[in-house]
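(Deposited chain)
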Amino acid sequence: MKKYLMGLVTMMMAVLVLAGCSSNASSDKKTLNIGILQIVQHGSLDAARQGFKSGLNQEIKKHDKDIKVKYDYMNAQGDQSNLNSMSQQLTSKKHDLLLGIATPAAQALSKKTKDTPILVTAVTNLKSAGLVKSNEKPKTNVSGTSDIGPVTKQIKLLTTLTQSDKPIGILYNSSEENSVLQVKMAKNYAKKNNLKLNVVSVTSTNDVASAVDSLKGKVSGIYLPTDNLMASSMKTIGKKAKEAKLPVVTGSIEMAEDGGTATYGLNYRDLGKQTGKMAYKVLVENKKVEDMPVEKAKTLHLYVNKAYAKEIGLDPAKIQKP
């Protein structure tokens, strides 16, 4: 009996030692804290955020790292006062890295801290937005991925879908720096190729429907740059444009999925993945953000919204890459 009790005690002590080792192993697991600020909720930006998480997770698994990631996500829902308060909250916490999704969110974070590394995505031009000294050598605490698309090829695609010689309509938010830049590119292309444009700007979702109505009968098609306001209003734009039998070419695939005819552009989930891989280099490989060049989308895709194309009398099979 005594030997039995001694054996039982020995077994219990062994179990306790193993449990302690397991607990210590668990506590030794590295945890990365990442704060995310997104300007507004819509398909493109949501895809970029999901892609970021996927890209970082893939790199962690690829290198067999025992790392846990905690995310502190905030969405300003397009409100500037929310951006200010949320960026203050995020920068006041001890995050290992901050992610800004879209230009206003990136700028809000950058203004609040010059110490915490910041990566951004869905920003058209980081230099013109005042986030980096140059896109090749940031020399600030900010870098990331640009969503600049092939604007000229997208305009060219639209010209192949139009069925009249009326001007091409462009609808954008004049208060978004990224949109202003893309519209400038479109105007330069139109001037060089003798294309007529009818450009309309809005600054509120309340004005989008009337803006599309104002283009009916005056344009042969509508071009939408990668614009947060336009992306948030795609269902309205798509419905109005279909009623007028107008083709709509968008700056991103997600926008075309939500109410456009077609696009030749980037996939925001893929762009987010690129940013996630950059995050791994910063957080695990200790690369300095200030030395990391801004990256562009590595692949572009032709996307055709077949249902939309058919509704306005186009054959989806005949829509080709520009």
About this structure: Confidence is low (pLDDT under 50) at residues 14-27. The chain is about 45% helix and 20% strand. Residues 205 and 255 are 15 Å apart (CA to CA).
